[in-house]
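User: Can you fold this complex?
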Amino acid sequence: MVRDLFRLSLRNIRHRGLRSWLTVIGILIGTAAVVALISIGQGLQRAIAVQVERTVGYNTILITSRGLNLGQRIRLDIEAIRAIPGVRNAIAVRVETAYVEGPGGKGFLGVLGYDPAMAEFVAEMNLSLASGRGLQASGEVLLGSRTARALGAGVGDEVAIEGRRFTVVGILQAQRAGGFATGGLSLLDLLVISLPELRELFPGPELVQYAVARLNERADMAAVRAQIQEHLRAVGERNAQITDFEDLTKSIQSMIRGVQAFLAGIAGIALLVGGVGVMNTMYTAVLERVREIGILKAIGAKDSHVLLLFLFESGLMGLAGGVLGLVLGYGVAWVATLIVSRLFQAHGAFSPALSPALVLGALFFSFLVGAVAGLFPAYRAARLPPVDALRYE
Amino acid sequence: MTAALVELQGVRKVYRLGEVEVPALRGVDLRVAGRDFLALMGPSGSGKSTLLHILGLLDRPTAGKVLWAGEDVTKLDGGRLAELRGRRIGFVFQMFNLVPNLTALENVELPLIFLGLPPRERRRRAEEALMRLGLGDRLRHRPNQLSGGQQQRVALARALVTDPALLIADEPTGNLDSATGREILGIFADLNKQGRTIVLATHDPEAAEVAKVRLRLRDGQIVERT
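Assistant: Here's the predicted assembly.
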């Protein structure tokens, strides 16, 4: 019987054609707005998670000066950090400013000390070569592409760093510097020599821009952090900050969630307005069909049958708006992310996410809004005394 | 004397129009037995329709008793009354009162939906009822595709499909030309011959002639019985 009432409701919705569509559109817009905003937000969260996972991984700890200020150097012994149980690998990025002379130019330039341990971080540091080969022996240097031009040097030429002669064995690829990897220092403008040689050239205390430690799969993040803290205290470094990427991602994501909740709230109001539209339509539907309600009652319909009939109608209209809104909202989200990606040239890392929870939630809520909006008109319809309803013109 | 199907005892009905109380029925006693065919006659406002509504459980009396098979139904709740209407009573109205966006067949199936019959059984019985009224070729037509007489026959099929104990008709020929009206009245007469109990209200003397008993109402009271 419920199925039959359901079918009757469908018939009634179709029968009222344009008016039903206008009502559905009200719900549609609200749902579309909610879905678009949430799927963009979730897409953003996922993109950040993927980015962090791909470039650094969650099992990574960053040691910098306070406030993630990479211009401020800190004191630490990278060997001691490597020795901490649970740490699989660690590198320190140390860049010194040196006076450099080349065949066609000279000046003060940044020199990075390369540590074989950095091999694991190469991708993140963008240390790939445009020409030549990597460092193999002492007395060898790699040049950033802009540095090579400034010094007028190519592979095979010699450059002098603080008066000591180095042979150019490779030129680095002219890639954009990835944020964390080089600590804001563009590889284009750097020279790279081996870390021991950098230490020889600058024998003072070891000060680094930052250090990165990667942990074993099952390492205890908190314990490792505590040991690093202890090491920093031991070497007298008070201005350091330890960040793990889980923290960072979490704080960024919670921020995104906050913004998203706010926007979804606004969109929710749109959905509510759609609900008022349904209520209006259902109310006129009741007024128009008072006589029909009387007939149904005369031939044996109970109040509950009439109530269900009208509730199905309003709920179905809500659901229809929900389905269409879901499709439209996802489409809008796609276009929006495409535009954003173009604007910020973030290649394909970011697309809207449509989680099952969002799909089900959107459908459920649009149905609910429709049904609740229909509740009062349906109740009115059901309570009409049959004889009055029949007499109604 | 056969047992009463429905019995009205001292039924009064007062409508309230704002401050004014308008009496529609002023103490009506009526007994409808199985196989009866009663015609209620009288001018507009004499209380015919009110009496039919109370008899058909669409309305409650202000005072008095309505006994269905000996049981007082005036105090039953709306759900129980709806069930009794669906099971025991068939209505035919002057305006046909078909549901406009349903086909003839679907209109006739409606009361069976509320009785909770399975779809196949419903379809079979609805088709049968329409066929018996000569509408076998109009099953899929909507009311606006049917003539007045055809619509009234669909309404009759809908009233009869539940095999009700009592058929109530309120001016069933009022909206039809006289030839079509006579045709419908013929159907009523046949139904009664087959044993159907009928109460109809009319102010058409010709319609009243087909009934076995005529009751004349005036000012909410039965004044004559012929």
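Residues 35-59+75-225 of chain B form a domain with the Rossmann fold fold (CATH 3.40.50.300). The beta strands of chain B are 4-17, 20-33, 37-41, 63-68, 71-72, 89-92, 166-170, 197-201, 213-218, 221-225.
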